[in-house]
Each structure stands twice: as C-alpha cells, then as structure tokens.
Model the fold of this input.
Amino acid sequence: MAARATYTREMRTPVDGTHCVGWLTRVVRTSLAGDTAWSFGAEAIRMVGGLAVFFVLVRALGTDGFGEFAAIAAVVAFVVPLAQVGASLLLVQRVRRDDHSIDDAFATAFTMVIVGGVVASLFTVGGVALVPGLSVSATAWLCAGELLGGAVTSLCAYTAIAAGRLRVYAQTTAILTGVRVAAAIALLSTGSTSVVKWALLQAIALSVTGGVILVRTRRTFGVHRTWARIRRYDVLEGAPYSASLAVFSAQDGIDKPILRSAGWINDAGLYGAAYRVPTLAMLPIQALLVASYNRTFTEGKRGLAATMAFARRLLAPSVAYAVVVGALMVLAAPLCVPILGKEFADAVPIVRWLGLLPLLRVLQYFPANALTGAGYQRVRLWLLISTLVINLALCLAWIPDHSWRGALAATFVGETWYVVVLWIATRWLLAVEGRRPSVMPA
Done:
C-alpha cells in the first residue's frame, strides 16, 4: 500500500512533494461553500438557459401561445412531484441519513419514477381533456417529456447529490439546460407558433437526454440495478415529500390557469411572463438550498434545534440577497419592453409588484427545510395545504373581476400566511422538543 501523504500545518504542500493542494481547492472540494459553488454554477447555467428558453418561446409563441403554454406547464408542474412520489429526496435521505447503499436506493427510486410517471401522464391528459382552452396533445407531449425523460434526468442529478458529487450534479444540470435551449431554438427556426410542436420537440429532447444521463449515472456511481419491488413503506415514506412539492407547485402556479379560464387570455401571458422574473432571480438561493440538503439531513439526527441553528446561519445573507434583488426588480422592470417586445409593456407593473416575492420566499425556505431535516415533513405539508386553500379561494374570488391584480393580491396574502404559520409552528415544536429532548418525530 502506498504511503499516505502528510501535510504541513499550512496544508499547502505535501511533505512527500507529490502535489500542491491550495486552501481554496480544499474548501471547494470539502465544504458547504464548495458544494454551494458547484450548485450555484448549476443554477446559474439553469438561469441563463431558462432566460434563453423564455425569450425564445415568447418570441416564437406570442402572447396568447405563451399564455396557453404557461397554463399547461403549471398543471404539469403540479403533477411532476406527485408522479415521482418523492423518489429523489427519498433517495438522498436513505443514502445520507439511513445508510442504504446507493444501488438499492437508486433502484427503488427509479422504479417509483417510471411507474408514477406513466400513471400520472394518463390521469393528467384525461383531466386536461375536460378543461376548455387547453390542448390535450400539447399536454400529452409535455407529460411525456417532463414526467419520464425529465424525471429520470432529475433523479440522476439527485443521485449525484446523495453521493456528495455536486460537480456531477452541475454537469447533469448543464446538459439538461442545453438540451432545452436547443429545442427552443429548433422551434424558433421552424417559424412555428404551435404549442403542440414545442411540447413534441421538448419531449423528444428530454427523453433522449434522460436515457444518456441514466447510462452515465450507472457507470459513474456503480449502479447495477434499475428496477426494484416498490413496498408500501417506500410509498408512505416518500409521499410527504411528493405531496409537499405538489402542493407548493399548485399554490405557486394555480393563478395562471385560473386567469386563462376566466377569460383574461392576454393578461395570463403577461402575468406568466412577469412571474418568470422572480423565479429566475431566486436560483442562487435554490443553489444554496440544494447544497445544504446533505447537511440538513445530518443535523436532523439531533433534532429541530440543530437544523434551525444551521438554517439561521444561511438565513441572514439570503435575506440580504432577497432585498437587493427585489429592489432591482422594481428599478429594472421597464427593461421588459425592449427585451420582450412592446406587446409586453403591461407586464412592467406586474414585475414591480413581484419584487416583494423573493423576501417572502427566503423567509419560508429555511425554516421549512429545517422542519424537513428534523423529520417534521408532515407538519410542513399541512401548513402548505392551508396556504393552498387560502390562495385558491382568493384566486377564484378575485381573478374573475380583477385579472392579474387579483392574482397578485391572492399570492401575497397566501405567501404571508405561510411565513407566519411556519415560524409559529417552528417555535412551538422547538418548545416541545425542549421539554421532551429524547422524543424524535416519527
């Protein structure tokens, strides 16, 4: 066996002179900062790619076409986490906290993704067929791409996270983003304004990419099994993750299809376009959340006090970022016109109002993740459900008469409610754990 290299106190050069490892390199390789750097790189690529796809689709589909696509995409976004039955996060939990082998964890998760994707696609297409104004064909192709090809690629990315290989996660994200951009450019080059054609192009691109990434993942992480028997325990354990993601997607996107169904077709396109701005602006925060998954689950072994202590360390800089990016949204909103075109001039005030959203989201994400890491995912789910009920009721009451103004008002009321009840629940559970430190959540 080769002699193990020893290092000087400065940790700069091995005594045996084999190679030089700088301080920054060690940080990037071993710490949360390094994981965040890789994750941020992935999210930056996703942000640039998302902007590119967004601009291309707006130009290619026009206001009405983009409004229809935004409505269908909101429906599919709600179904995606339900179809996966929480498989991706369950894989991370089992590898990092429960000490399962990555082979067994991946096989179970992959089976859940494929079976769930097929079943969910059938139900989604059947449901959309009953909704006037939405294309069944576009929905079918969008489901095929997102619930199968996209879901497999996403699972492979989370496999890299579970293995502590954020570099591979970043590479997978970059490949997926590049494929989406290529598909959008292909649509624009055809001169087509068809939502169905876009959904078909994306389905083909995502399916091929999913197959290639699957082969790469098996080779990189030594995964030998891709199929496993799904047990009742697997579904029960993954369901809270799945339901939470689905409910969040619903309360985040339910206003868009309601706008279109209420007859505000042009405003639905404006609102859908404007809503992409805070979504893209929050990608650096998403990078930090992704990088902290492993640490959050690890801290969860010691209870909610430990996960909240970790969350508070990340909260202060995130709040500062949210305030800055919100102010920039207010100031830079008029740039929508030269970037998107004159037909999107009415989106300027929507973007300005949405500048409040990043701060509300930051105040939610970190306590919510602390609950998840400590085993209180079901508490998080019920709080999300209450938010969805409030948001849906207000959207149905206000959007028919007030268009995007009603949608904004419903959004802010729901988001504020979620912030308040999250922090109240967290403080209450901390008090409970303080009185019964030996009791861990089920």
Q: What stands out?
A: The chain has two domains: 17-253, 282-442.
